[in-house]
Amino acid sequence: MKTHYINKVIGSVAVGVCLLATAGQQAKAGEMYQGWNYSIDSFSDGSGGSNYEIKGFAVTETADSVYVALTGGTPLTGTYASGADDDNIGWGDMFFNFSGKDFASAEAEGNLLGVRFASTNDSGVDQVGLFSNVATKSVTGENNGYGSIRRYYDSGYNKADTMGTDIATADEAYSYLYGDAVADNPTANNTQTRNVINSGNFVGEINLLTDAQLAAQGLDFGNFGANGPQTFGFQLDKSMLGGVLPGGINSFMAHVLLECANDGVALAGNIDIPVEQQDVPEPAGLLSLGFAGLAFLKSRKGRQA
């Protein structure tokens, strides 16, 4: 995969190793502000106007919870659109990739987590909540949208910060979503949109949060001039993630597209999963694991940006 994405993951692993010595702060990609990790999207790449403009994506964590926030012009329940099969276009599902690989590879290997947070969308799963072993599909056909990311960019929406701070260019988007081979020659056929969960194993419920509830946790998109008319999010318990991720620092790339794929946003960061006392290796062992992770990730550096 491209150096841009791998460097974010390597940075996360490196700081995980430093934590052993300092017990200090976690490293985050994106833009850090008052404990939240932000990815600020282009304000002019929402095809169809302000109702389809995503402005930002943010994540923070406490000892036992992960908080996720989105802001933009699309309400949680979607917006009226006569071109959609159900007269409504809303949010797709959110995907968390902890594999260190591109999105397509992670899905093929059964390593994707997904969150259905919008109960009115056209997801392939019925419940709102966290899912593991996720397979994806496109619902752009039902929502008068872009069947491929290449068509979206060819329609004039190839802007700086195309998927936010952490996937800032079309080339980076192709590389992360489909792999470097596709990024070398993206076409409408090999960049098919995948924006909802098709199937997966239900892990547990999430708690939906309002703008006010997120602000009480310290969220402030306004610091970046990115407050949209619609801000909402969710909280999930780390105990659920502990069942599918190892204890310690876990680096991820997360992203979400609208059902029509008229806009999307991504965020790179870390989540610290509590380690049970009896499962904690000796410090020397932890350091070995950390440096082994660095060596593995460095060996996977792809073509230069």
TrEMBL record:
Secretion signal, residue range per the UniProt entry: 1-29
Keywords: Signal
Highest taxon of the lineage: Bacteria
Record-given protein name: PEP-CTERM sorting domain-containing protein
Originating organism: Lusitaniella coriacea LEGE 07157
Lineage: Bacteria, Bacillati, Cyanobacteriota, Cyanophyceae, Spirulinales
